């Protein structure tokens, strides 16, 4: 059965009061999305001026209170704090008696599954891990982007239907992730999304240095096609001088990068080696050409290290 279908009424969560602990970019967006589904945001906590402004923008008229007050007022609490902060926050809330029996506690960390909520579980809470596989801006456009967004879902088996129903109500598509697979799942998303931003930003800087006035317009169609091809065809979509074994071209790239953008050399070499390995493994890079290419990349490593010294 497609996860895009609405859950049966018996699987739907009741209309809930919703609270947010941590008014970063994610929490207010999810609360606003749940509001569209009929739930009622009642409290939000935020420390920085930026988080308070974000809460006011995304959840107007919802009071700003302490984390303990959020838990006191809400049936469903979104814990949307940085990964490294989450375990301590959960322990603190449980130790101070802020957690109420039967309360739904949802964290949005990609790294952790439901076990990080064990202190709250022992206090009677219902633990859910719902991680949206999406990048957020902290503006209303994020709510629209949740439509069709995959969520990594981890929860006790008896809460699985409730977790999936909440995701569907937010417009997302639930993808079940086993507890012990969460770090690997999160690493995959970081590799694909976070590092992509760095690569694109570097590419735009280099194009500007080469005299291109609108690098975004130049890269947009190219990167869109590359992404589409990669999602459709995987390694078969590899193109360019590394996949072809054009060692001379790669050597010229490294020379230019060392002169004009030395901070990009290490990343270029690392990605070129990874690309060469995959192209070789899939028969795209001819072994007789790979030797010269790998030699250039090895020399580039030595040269980069020499420059650093």
Defining traits:
7-stranded mixed beta sheet, 309 residues, alpha/beta, disordered C terminus, 13 helices, elongated
Which residues sit in consecutive blocks of at least 5 with pLDDT less than 50? 1-10, 301-309
| Spatial arrangement of strands, main beta sheet | 2-1-3-4-5-6-7
Q: Note the gap between the termini.
A: 59 Å
Quaternary form = single chain
Q: Which percent range fits the helix content?
A: 40-55%
Shape: elongated
Overall pLDDT level = 92
What can be said about the biggest beta sheet? 7 strands, mixed
Q: Whole-number radius of gyration?
A: 24 Å
- The counted number of beta strands is 7
- Which H/E pattern describes the elements? EHEHHEHEHEHEHEHHHHHH
Structural class by sheet pairing and helices: alpha/beta
Instruction: Give the DSSP E fraction (strand runs of 2 or more residues).
Output: 5-15%
Compute the number of helices.
13
Secondary-structure map:
Layout lengths: L16 E5 L5 H10 L3 E6 L3 H10 L8 H7 L2 E4 L6 H10 L8 E4 L10 H5 L3 E7 L8 H5 L4 E5 L5 H10 L3 E4 L5 H28 L5 H19 L7 H4 L2 H14 L4 H17 L5 H22 L1
Parallel strand pairs: 1-2, 1-3, 3-4, 4-5, 6-7
Antiparallel strand pairs: 5-6
